[in-house]
Specification:
This protein is α/β, with parallel strands linked by helices. It is built from nine helices and 13 strands. The chain folds into three domains: 64 residues, SH3 type barrels (Roll); 160 residues, 3-Layer(aba) Sandwich (Rossmann fold); 55 residues, Orthogonal Bundle (Ribonucleotide Reductase Protein R1, domain 1), CATH 1.10.40. The structure holds guanosine-5'-diphosphate, magnesium ion (MG) and zinc ion (ZN).
Length: 359
């Protein structure tokens, strides 16, 4: 073999090696598995807690994967979502209670279409009750949907009455389309009737106020009558007795309740997830975790005034269509407050919330 031939051979084997390497790289690139599709199972918009026994039970019982079946081949059924956990939910149909994989954004009270152990579609909602997540104000927390009445449970003492919280609830309820009802619990602890005077203003503007005691049973039948046949969500500060009132209405619910902390007079969060229960008379009740603060979801300062219904008839007389009822001369709302046609407490509540939205 000549030197030239040797050199050629060397070049060929070099070329071969290069080709081999390229092939290997191409094959390696081709064989690289596709990154798995991102599965979003974000139900953080609903109120649930991983440690809640209902939620952990739901998780255990759900199939790991959706079966691969063509969408048009799936026969769906309709049901009502009664509890939610991470990626899973409990669905009630006419005859059965099932556990299903959920969809992002699902809330207790949702009507859904489901098939093969998975929710396929959330049906349009009539009403919603939302608030911003206390730890991430950009995230919506949907407390309940499709309710007729939001029962804002308050207690006269232990924990004390907080009218500011009621005012914020009323705004959120108005925005979400349900009707409000104020349930004043623990009236057995009432020392003086005058403690209830702060609630008169709500009766004046047409919000039903029902006094009751889960401990003695006083007023419980009146509350049941007011809610008969409706879908209602019980909300309010922790420890006011939401779960206790629901147990008084229907003892078989046996919802967990908790002591109010002696140290700070605040309730503890015993109820960790929202859950819907259907009572014998057809009334549907939703118990919710207690809250310590109540933010307003997606309500701007400029639209706040529309959620104070009692301003409505007077605001038509304001000289400016976009009157904020604060500094404008000739404002008919402020005039109505001066005359006593709009309760001063309500106007003050408006100014307080407006200020908080502008901060
Ligand atoms: N004195 C009195 N205590 C009550 C009444 N209702 C509830 N409680 C107590 O208040 C505490 C908190 O009740 P709970 O139902 O867990 O409140 P929730 O956090 O709003 O669900 C418990 O210790 C209950 O026993 C009532 O009508 N009167
Ligand atoms: Mg509770
Ligand atoms: Zn005005």
């Amino acid at each position: 073999m000549t030197r030239q031939e040797k050199r050629n051979l060397k070049d060929i084997s070099k070329l071969k090696r290069q080709r081999e390497r390229q092939k290997f790289i191409a094959a390696a690139a081709g064989a690289k598995p596709e990154p798995p599709p991102r599965v979003r199972l974000d139900t953080r918009t609903a109120d649930w807690d991983e440690e809640d026994p209902v939620v952990s039970e739901l998780r255990r019982a759900v199939p790991a994967q959706r079966p691969a079946v063509a969408a048009e081949a799936i026969a769906t059924e309709e049901g009502l979502v009664t509890a939610i956990g991470k990626g899973v939910c409990r669905v009630q149909t006419d005859g059965a209670t099932l556990r299903c994989r959920s969809l992002p954004g699902l809330a207790v009270g949702d009507r859904v279409r489901f098939a093969l152990g998975a929710v396929q579609e959330i049906l349009p909602r009539r009403t919603t009750l939302s608030r911003p997540d206390p730890h991430n104000p950009k995230l919506e927390r949907v407390m309940a949907v499709n309710v007729d009445v939001v029962v804002n449970v308050v207690s006269v003492s232990s924990p004390p009455l907080r009218p500011g919280l009621i005012d914020r609830y009323l705004v959120a309820i108005q925005r979400g389309g349900a009707k409000p009802l104020i349930c004043v619990n623990k009236i057995d602890l009432l020392q003086d009737e005058r403690e209830l005077e702060a609630l008169d203003v709500y009766r004046t503007i047409g919000v039903p106020v029902v006094l009751c005691s889960a401990a003695t049973g006083a007023g419980v039948s009146e509350l049941m009558d007011a809610l008969s046949g409706l879908t209602c969500v019980f909300t309010g500060h922790s420890g006011v007795g939401k779960s206790s009132v629901l147990n008084a209405i229907c003892p078989s619910l046996a919802l967990a309740t908790h002591q109010v902390s002696a140290a700070n007079n605040k309730g503890q969060h015993t109820t960790r997830s929202s859950s819907l229960h259907i009572l014998a008379n057809g009334t549907k009740v939703i118990d919710t975790p207690g809250i310590r603060q109540f933010g307003l979801w997606e309500i701007g300062a400029e639209e706040l005034r529309w959620y104070f219904n009692e301003f409505g008839q007077f605001s038509h007389g304001c000289p400016y269509a976009n009157c904020t009822h604060t500094h404008e001369p000739g404002c008919e709302v402020k005039e109505a407050v001066r005359r006593g046609d709009i309760p001063k407490a309500r106007f003050d509540a408006y100014l307080r919330i407006l200020q908080s939205l502008l901060e």
